[in-house]
Amino acid sequence: MAGVSIQFVLSLALLFIYLKERAAGNTAQFLFESDYVWFAPLHIHYHIGVDGISVAMILLTSFVVIAGVLVSWTQDFMNKEFFFLLLFLSLGAYGYFLSLDIFTLFFFLEVAVIPKFLLIGIWGSGKKEYSALKLALMLMAGSGLVFVGLAGLYFNTTINGQHSFDLIQISQMHINVQAQLLFFPFAFIGFGIFTALFPFHTWVPDGHSSAPTAASMFLAGISMKLGGYGCLRVATYLMPDAAHTYAPIIIVLATIAIIYGAFATMMQTDLKYINAYSSISHNGFVLLGIGMLTQTSITGAVLQMVSHGLMTSLFFAAIGMIYSRTHTRMLDQLGGLLKVIPFISTVFVIAGLCSLGLPGFSGFVAEMTVFMGSWQNPDQWYRLATILACASIVVTAVYILRATGKAVMGPLQKPGFTGLLDAGWNEKLAAVILISGIVIIGIAPFWLNQLITPGAENIIQHLQKVVTLK
Question: Which residues on neighbouring strands pair with residue 50, listed in sequence order?
Answer without folding.
Answer: 31
